[in-house]
Structure formats: C-alpha cells, structure tokens
Amino acid sequence: MSGSSDAWARYTREFGLRLQRARAARGISQERVAYAAGISVFTYRKLEKGESNPGTPANPRLHTLIGLCEVLGVTPAELLPSDLPGA
User: What's the predicted TM-score (pTM) here?
Assistant: First the structure.
C-alpha cells in the first residue's frame, strides 16, 4: 500500500508543478487564480504543493479542476500527468 501512496504523492506533486507553471506562464497571482476559480487561497496554495493536508496527496473536486482550467486557459489533460498511479 505504501508504494501506491508514494505513487499518488508523486502524481499530485507533478499536478501541482503543472498548475504552478500554467499560472506563471500567464503572470497571474495565486490569489487571483483562487478567487476566479471559486476556492480559497489556502486551498489553491496546497494544490500547487500537491497536497490537501500535510502529508496527504491533493484530491481536488472535479468542479475545482474544471474551474482552474478555465481560469488558466488550459485543458485538464495539460494539468493532469499522463502516468496514472497504479495503472
């Protein structure tokens, strides 16, 4: 089970990096993205770190993911790593 947890942690860290790069490419602050996507700045910052709580991989709702994509002008495929854990 630990291997699976490690794989999800790596996956969500990569998701966070992709989120951060997409935001930086558009020159938008974390605060502006969070507000426009309808989430708290705290939540957005945690997503960029790839976690929801310390030591717990991020698990955003579909509604949040789509909102972030709309704000950042990217598709879900651009934010989500293609190497799914456990696949």
Answer: 0.89
Q: How many CB atoms lie within 10 A of CB 44?
A: 23
**pLDDT of 51-82, one tens digit each?**
988 888 999 999 999 999 999 999 999 999 99
The whole-angstrom distance between residue 82's C-alpha and the CA centroid of its chain comes to 14
Q: Evaluate whether 44 touches 30 at the Cβ level (below 8 Å).
A: yes
Q: In the structure, what pLDDT confidence band is assigned to residue 86 with cuts at 50, 70 and 90?
A: confident
Rounded Cα–Cα distance for residues 62 and 68 (Å): 10
Task: Supply the CATH classification number for the domain 2-79.
Answer: 1.10.260.40
Number of helices and strands in the chain (H, E): 5, 2
